[in-house]
Amino acid sequence: MNRARLLTLNAALPVLDYRVPEGMTVVPGSVVIAPLGPREILGVVWEEERLPGQSVPEEKLRPLRDIVPIRPLRAELRRLIEWTADYYCAPMGAVARMVLASGGAMRGPSTVTEYRLTGGMPERMTPQREKAMERLEGEQATIRELADLADVSEGVLRGLVGQGVLEPVVVDIDRPYPRALPDFATPELSPDQHTVAGELVAAVEARKFSPILLDGVTGSGKTEVYCEAIAAALSMNRQVLVLLPEIALTEAFLRRFADRFGAAPVVWHSSQKSTERRRAWRAISTGEAQVVVGARSALFLPYANLGLIVVDEAHEVSFKQDDGVRYNARDVAVMRGHFEALPVVLASATPALESLQMAESGVYRKLDLPSRFGAAQLPAISLIDLTEEKPERGRWLAPRLARELFARMERGEQSLLFLNRRGYAPLTLCRNCGHRFQCANCSAWLVEHRFSRKLACHHCGHEEPQPPRCPECGEPDCLVACGPGVERIADEVAEIIPEARVAVATSDTLGTPDKAAEFVAMAETGAIDVIVGTQLVTKGFHFPELTLVGVVDADLGLEGGDLRAAERTYQQVAQVAGRAGRGSKPGEVLIQTRHPDAPVIAALASGDRDAFYATETEARRHAGAPPFGRWAAIIVSSEDEAEARDAARRIGDTRPRIEDIAILGPAPAPMALLRGRYRYRLLINARRSARVQDAIRDWLAPLDLPRGVRVSVDIDPYSFV
C-alpha cells in the first residue's frame, strides 16, 4: 500500500490522499498523523472504494508523518461509523472523532505525575491556600485537574508543592484493571429469572446478532438476569458493554457489579479525569477491559473483542444526543450488534413504543419478567383529584399525601416525592410591575434556585444572582416565585414535618458519581426520611424501606404538544412508582392530577400498561408517527435573527416535492433563542419506506448559505424545542 486515503476528524475537510513512505506499513483502520499546510492532523486510513473522492496524482502526494501506536480500527467499527454518518446525516469525521475520544490515548508516556496532600501546613496560610487544602482532601490528580477541583490557580498549587504541602506521585496510567470473575458470587434466581437468563446465555454463546427486548416489571431482577449473560461472555473471554442513561446511576451499579463479579467494571463517562479516560480507552482497545459501564459515548469505543451489549433503562430519552452527531444510542447499539454479530439486550420496565413494535413484528425477541422477585409486590396506586382534594393555600401537596408522609415518618419508613422540575420555582416575577426574569441567551424563563441563591437557565447554563430590587421598576423586595420546583416541595415538607430529614435528588445535587454514591448510602442507612427528586430518581435506585411514592404533578409532562408526551409521562410515573415496596413492606403510590380521566393517568391508576400502549400505538399509526412513519427536523440558527429567518426561508423555498414525504415550515422553533442563536425549524413527516436521508442530503447540499448560519439535521427527533 503506497498511497492512503484518509478520513480526517475535521468535518470541514474533504477526503485527503497521502503517500505512504518507505518502511511504513498502514492498513485500513490505521490511525496516522499527516501534514496539512504547516500543521499536523490526525486521520484514519480508509478503504478507497468506500470513501469516494477526487484522486490526486502520485507526484502531488505528501508523505504521512507517522503511525499512532494503537491498534487499527476494526472493519466492524468502520462500518458502524459509515452507517451512523449515513443514517443521521452527519459528517463521517464527526462520528470518527467520538471513537478517538481520548487524545491522551493517542500519544504521550505511560506514566504521569499526580499530586496529593501530605498533611503538612504551609509557612503562610492564605484564603486561596486554605480553600485548596480543604477541597483537595483525599484527592489525587494532575496539577491542572486539582486546580479545577479546588477552583484556584495552578500557581497556588505549585506554591504548595514547593512548601511540601502537596507531594508528587508517579502513576502508571496504563496499569491493568482487577479481573472480574464470572462465578464469584452466583445469585439464587427465581424460576422465571432462571428461564430468561438461560435464553440470554444461549444468545451470548451463539455468537450471532440477536436483538432482545428484556421486558420486566420494576423490581423483577432484570439486572441479576442480564448479569448471567455477562458471566457467560466473561467465561468466553469476550468484552461486554453496559450502557446506563445517567452518571448518577453508575456508582450503585458498580457496587452491585463488584458484589457479583468480585471487581468493579471499567467506567466511561464525561466526569472522568483525562488520565482515567486514557487508561480506559487503551484497555478497551487491547481487550484488557472486560466489562465497560458507561454513558452513551461508550458505544463508539474501539472494543477488541466485544461479545455482548446491554442497554439498561433502554426507554430513556437521555440516550438520544441532541447536539453534535444527533444519534440515539439505543438504536446505534442494535446496529453495532448487527455489525459485530453479537446479542444486544434492551432492558426496561417501560419499553419505548418503537421497541415494543419491533418485538411485535418479530425483529426483536421479547423476554418477559412479569412479577417482582421474592416476596415483594407491586405497589397499590391511587389518584388524588386536585380539583376535589385541593392543597391548602400556598401549598402544593394535597392533605391526603401530607398525612401519608407523616404516617410513613412515624413508622420509620421512607417516602419519595416526584416532580420533574428542578430548582425552587420555574418563574420569578415582580409583583409591582409584572416583569418576568428571562434568560439573556434563550427564550426561556430563569428558574429560581434557593440553594445557590441564583436565577438559572436550564437550557444554556446562564446564571445570575437574585437582584435585591426589580431591574424594570426598581422596586425593592418585590420578587415572587411562581409555581413549584423540587426545592419548594422540600421546603413544604420541612414545614409539614419539621423533624423530617429531607434530601433533594436532581442533576444539580447529584451531578457527580461521588455525590450520587453519598446520597445512595444515606438513603440505604436510613439517614433520609423523604426524598424529593426529578426524573433522576425514576430509575435504577433500590431502597427497601421506601414504601410511599407521591407524584406531585402528573400532568406536567403532558404539556407542550410533544409527540411522545403521553408515553414519556407513563414511563416516568410508572418508573417512579416502581421505587415503592421493593422490600418486604407493601408500597403505595399517590398520583396528584387535575385530569384523572386522561388516558395516560387512567392507565397508570388501573395498572393496565398493555391497554395504554395499544391506544398509543393506534394513535401513532393514524398520525403516521413513529414507529409507523418517520420524523426528521432541520434546525436553522444564527446569532442574527434576520439571517436565520432568511436562510430558513431559502431552505423552505427549495424544498423537494416527493411523494410520501411532507415538509412543514419553516417556523420559529418553540425555543426560538437558544444559547444566543435564533432558531427556525422545518419538520419532515414521511412513510417508513421513504428515503428521507437521501432527500435531505440532495436538498441541502447545493445551498450556499452565509457563514454565520448553522444548519443541523435531527433524524428521529426526541426534543421538539
Task: Label this structure with key terms.
globular, alpha/beta, single chain, 721 residues
Explain the layout of strands and helices.
Blueprint: E1 3-8, E2 16-19, E3 31-36, E4 39-46, E5 66-67, H1 75-87, H2 92-99, H3 103-106, E6 111-117, H4 127-135, H5 143-150, H6 154-162, E7 166-172, H7 191-206, E8 210-216, H8 222-235, E9 239-243, H9 250-261, E10 266-268, H10 274-286, E11 291-294, E12 306-312, H11 329-340, E13 343-348, H12 353-360, E14 365-369, E15 380-385, H13 399-410, E16 414-418, E17 427-430, E18 447-449, E19 454-456, E20 463-465, E21 479-482, H14 486-496, E22 502-505, H15 513-524, E23 530-533, E24 546-551, H16 565-577, E25 588-593, H17 599-606, H18 609-623, E26 629-638, H19 641-653, E27 661-674, E28 677-687, H20 692-700, E29 710-715
Parallel strand pairs: 8-13, 8-14, 9-11, 9-12, 10-11, 12-13, 15-25, 16-23, 16-24, 22-23, 24-25
Antiparallel strand pairs: 1-2, 1-4, 3-4, 3-5, 6-7, 17-21, 18-19, 19-20, 26-28, 26-29, 27-28
Helix pairs in contact: 1-2, 1-11, 5-6, 7-8, 16-17, 17-18
